[in-house]
Amino acid sequence: MNSISQSFAHTMPEHVGAAFDMAVSEAWRFVGQTAPNPAVGCALLDARGKVLVVAAHHKAGAWHAERLAVEQAQALGVVEQIHTAVVTLEPCNHTGRTPPCTEALLSTPVQTVWIGCADPNPHVSGGGAAYLQARGLDVRWLAHASNGGACMARCRALLAPFAWRMAHGRPWITVKQAVNAQGSMRPPAGSTTFTNRQSLEFAHALRRATDGIVTGTGTIRADLPAFTVRHVPDHASRRRVLVVCGASTTVPAHWLEQAEVHFDVLFCPDCSDLPGVLASTPALWVMVEAGPTLLRAISAQGMWDDWLHIGQDAHGCDHFSVSTRHDISPLSLFPQWARCTQEQTCFPVL
Ligand SMILES: NC(=O)c1ccc[n+]([C@@H]2O[C@H](COP(=O)([O-])OP(=O)(O)OC[C@H]3O[C@@H](n4cnc5c(N)ncnc54)[C@H](OP(=O)(O)O)[C@@H]3O)[C@@H](O)[C@H]2O)c1
User: Fold this and answer.
1) Which of 2, 19, 22, 62 has the most beta carbons within 10 angstroms of its beta carbon?
2) From ligand 1's centre to the CA of 227, what distance in Å?
3) Are residues 221 and 149 in the same domain?
4) Pairing relation of β-strands 138-141 and 172-179?
5) 154 and 258, same domain (yes or no)
């Protein structure tokens, strides 16, 4: 029996819920930069529930969220005030590129640790929590808090791409499909888009949050797209994966040369091989930006996790809808989610 099943149901104090929200928001800022590591946030609180510091994992090789939070508390001279740690993911208990987060927490006077999600790696899941518990800490799981559902959903949404990759060996796949009022995906001649400014910013925020793009050779020939993040600020020096479905011989050489400046470009002549091609990359989350031909193939193979549909009405107003195959989605952490209609079935590909 592991530490999760041993703990009892409890209520989450309000200040802990607020700290979880802060930890998720901080971690969200680095989504799209942490691969192959998950995005994780941590808040450290004093005995009265005041938040002392909030930190997140920035990128592979950098401090994990807990260690960075402890470092920041040290810099602020508040380590001795630490009473409660709130972590979106179970603290690691092993030495990788950085030392274990359990030891970082144990180097402080922390007494209670609230955990959002268990480590999705079945070989180590529960180990970090058990280690802390064995050293006298009060370890509490959001899953066992009677009022922890909303916080738990946010922590799970944050972890979803990593957890999915861990369980299924391929990244989380979000399809983005824009359709105009006439039902066409093709922009008018001379243009490469027809959506409005907010939709464009949403699309670029999605590029920022994801680790790669999947497209088809038809889109490349039609638009010569740059696929870079331009309408919102990008992570610094971010190099992503660009998987092109189709034959490499059919894309212009000058486009490929330019794309390789920013992307690791891989060709996938048969999109049933897409999971394997994506598995060969470090990506946790990819976005499909392709025309109707490839979207039909992806839809037929059921090779997607979320399907974001951006539709335009006759007045030029955009409407966002999402189909998702899961009970949570990383898309729910975008502010635009509040504007999305959530559907249970996939939209037809036009
Ligand atoms: N509104 C939107 O959201 C949106 C997004 C992107 C693009 N677009 C528009 O879509 C139009 C292009 O559409 P499209 O249908 O011609 O292009 P596409 O779907 O992007 O690419 C079609 C190509 O994908 C490859 N492909 C198709 N099925 C495949 C499979 N099962 N396995 C591997 N490769 C496969 C084939 O490449 P080969 O022929 O090389 O084998 C095919 O020619 C453009 O007008 C573009 O602006 C719209």
Assistant:
1) 19
2) 15
3) no
4) unpaired
5) no
Question: 37 and 119 share a domain?
Answer: yes
Same-domain pairing of 134 and 178: no
pLDDT bracket for residue 8 (50, 70, 90): low
For ligand 1, the distance from its centroid to the CA atom of residue 187, given in whole angstroms, is: 14
With a cut of 70, say whether residue 263 has pLDDT above it.
Answer: yes
* pLDDT (tens digit per residue) in 39-48: 999 999 999 9
Q: Is 186 in the pocket of ligand 1 (CB under 6 A)?
A: yes
- Is residue 66 part of the annotated active site? The answer reads yes
Q: Is the CB of 245 under 6 A from ligand 1?
A: yes
200 and 147 within one domain: no
Q: Give the rounded percent of residues in the chain with a pLDDT score beyond 90.
A: 78
pLDDT at 345 over 70: no
Ligand 1: residue of 217, 223, 242, 321 to mutate (most ligand atoms within 8 A of CB) is 217
Place of tokens 């691969």: 35
Q: How close is the Cα of 296 to the center of ligand 1, in Å?
A: 9
What SS3 state is found at 1?
Answer: coil
Q: Are residues 256 and 130 in the same domain?
A: no
Does 348 map to a domain? no
The reported pTM is 0.94
Number of domains in the chain: 2
Query: Could you tell me if 151 and 20 are in contact, meaning their C-beta atoms sit under 8 angstroms apart?
Result: yes
Which range marks the domain in which residue 118 is found? 3-159
